[in-house]
Amino acid sequence: MKQLISIILILPLCSFSQDFGDYIKENAIEIENNNNLSQEVYDSISRFELIMVGEMHGTQEPSSFVESLSKLIAEKEGAVSVGLEIPINELSNFIESPTENNLLNSNFFSKKNVDGRNGQSWFDLILHCTKDTNINLFFFDNVNTTKNEKRDSIMYVGIKNQKFQFPKNKIITISGNIHNWRIPFNDMTTMAMYCLKDTMNFSYDKICSISHTYSEGTMLNNIGNGLELSTIPFEENIYSKSIDYENYLVFYEFGKENRYNCLYYTKKVNHSKEIKK
Length: 277
What we know:
The chain is of the alpha/beta class and 277 residues long. The chain is 31% helix and 23% strand. The chain has helices spanning 20-27, 39-45, 61-77, 92-96, 100-104, 107-110, 120-131, 148-165, 191-197, 238-241, and strands spanning 29-30, 50-55, 80-87, 135-141, 170-176, 207-222, 227-232, 247-251, 262-269.
């Protein structure tokens, strides 16, 4: 499934009474340091049990955010689960013996980088999770699935299984920014939708779906022409002009017709470099 390159408004398809620019100004939570998230960030996100971060593959900021968020939650709550959109069978040796060398030589990080996932950012995130004994790392993709909807249902099962194994843990996932849509994508049920519909295992109001957006920068991924470095020139938008923060979070709930219910904004996006062997 190709990602969405557009940074056009990610907001509600339904109408709402307040201009979203004003809403950002009143509700944005500043992130002064991406590597050390504040108590305010924890207070705002602590009510959620499942936190799904969507990204444009081949970028640094979402994986860095997941790393910092996992550290924050583990410190506050004692443990957290972190899942990545990677097929389990491509990391089998690493899972059996989680060393840096086994990760580097795994099938996933040895194969050609075709969509940006198997770059330096996800490599660093996995190493961080491996070194922290309070983080329970898991992987929830299936490389053998060709139909996108079936693939998303398998992703959901992977998340559900992790919840069964560690029922008291919050779960943080990182995936392409369509899998965590709260509404259908081209009539397809997404991973997030399966979780939202499973009210036996997940509480609807305790699921947070985060979209990363930006105003300028670079990314290394595939948007239809193979792996390539893309440059996004600065263009002022509602996110940059609403408030004078370089980075921030905004939580919102304008009904059930939204793709996401949280916005993670960084003024700049930086590409994830390819791993050097």
